[in-house]
Design a protein that fits this description.
The protein is mainly beta. It has a single domain, classed as Maltoporin, Chain A. It is 4% helix and 57% strand. It is built from five helices and 33 strands. Strand 27 and strand 28 form a beta hairpin. The longest helix has 7 residues. The two termini are 30 Å apart.
Length: 608
Amino acid sequence: MRIKLTFIITILFYTTQITAQVEPVKTDTLREVIITSTRIDLPFKENSRTIDIISSEDIKKSAATNLADLLQQVAGVDIRRRGTAGSQADLFIRGGGFDQTLLLIDGIKMDDAQTGHHSMNAALPIEVIERIEIIKGPAARVYGQNAFTGAINIVTKKELKNSISAKLETGSFGQLNAGVTVGANLENSSHIVHVDKMTSAGYRHNTDYDNSNYFIKSVFNKSRQAIEMISTFQERKFGANGFYARASATEQYEETQNSVLAFATTFNSEKLTVKPRVYWKRNQDMYVYLRNDPTVYRNLHISNKIGAEVNASLQSNLGVTGFGVDLAKVYIKSNNLGNHNRLMTTLFLEHRFKLLNETLDITPGVAVTYFSDFEFYAFPGLDVGLKLTDDLKVYGNIGYTYRIPTYTDLYYNDSSTVGNADLEVEEALSQEIGLKYFSERFTGSVAAYNRNSKNLIDFIRPDTDTDIYAATNIAEVNTKGIETNIAYHFNLNNYKQTLAVGYNFLDDDILDQNKDLSRYSLNTLKHHFTTRLSTQLFKNVSQNIIYKHAERTTGDSYNVWDASLAVNLKQLEFTLTANNIFNADYIEAGFVPMPPSNVLFGLRYNFK
């Protein structure tokens, strides 16, 4: 079982109870988990890419209160937070930019035409997440635009038994969180409804927040042709002290809204599976430079994306063929960026061959995309895997990947920033080789990767005599690294214990080209080490300890310890979470210091 997350306790997200009976050591059968975010559905163990799974069990033991904190415990995933409770966080994989990682919800692409800063606005409450699939490396041939360095797919729960679970939390900085999750499993339909609110007075001046999450997932017509509906709405209102511009900009304020509505179904025959989907995604971003006087400077951006896609897989004597088409149109209305629209059409094709008594798998594929305001782009790739034993596999992949500029890259202008309408498309050729091992008590993996990029987009100062950053294509950047993850499950006092360790080393030559001038690229993680010890020493008590070490390419480094404790008494659960126990002083992004030591107390009640 692949575990590597923050450990702050299962405080608020226990919709099920830890069993009181003594259980033998066993792992979640991740080897049997089907990776559903691709056209060719494959068991986790059979995949020939670097894929991390955060299981529902991992999520319970993470004690994280939001997705940003959860993902921060995965080696190779860099979450740079400006605010707390997921108010504003950027998502990076293996040194890529925040515009270069694609976030998906049940396979629905959450990319935003305005800016990748909004990717995490779509983050769902942890209570409704079944697992998270993290695909590292080039993924453009599988997902298309924005999957430059990887993709993260949030898989929501299929259904909950008839149940109601309520939580209430309070802690440092005036934190007050409350939420309700309801499950209804009816004769011909099932429904999951979740509502929560998270508020805080802030850990320093103008860092307060008021965040709300609404989620509905329904399956209709279960007895015949089931139709699945997902509807989400997230609203964030937060003080943005030093988030953007400069450290002296202490009075900034921002409000964001993100919503998704999608319908999907699946048609199955003996050899053919077809999965059509239609969806609508909306994002709204309102920013003011002076919170108490919006007339000084105010931006309002509203983007909409309407899409339809059909993905299919066909079984034959030659293997499995995956193919699909994705059509989407995006619109943006902005007082700064202007009004624009873009039509995107992508065709996907891949085929998986199994040779040598099914010990060798070879999967070539290609994605061809047309953008109405750019041109056609074709990006091929190849995955190869060789099963050495039932538990040991060596694999490799190579592929081209790309990203078109966002509207912020192209058109944004203010007193310190200048867009560039002549930007070229980012491109890269990535290669990777790795080794995976699975057993009941031990899982491990190691991978080495290389990425040769050209035309990377960053906001840089043309010279040191100006404070104006201009959107620019950087000529060429080489990124290479190595990553390893190990999890060991053992039995102590007849209770299951887990020790998980992850490490990622990354090196690139961007400093040689862009020293002291870049706004975003120079802050990548050179060393990233995560470890978690999850223990249960008594019948109804469990505890977790998490340690994170980070060293960035600029030389900044920090160590952060978190811990959590959970006590279960039948339908009632008490939790205690301690973050940044040793009061580390550190910054993840921009000019924003992260919170000092803090605690959160929680109570959850499961109604039967």
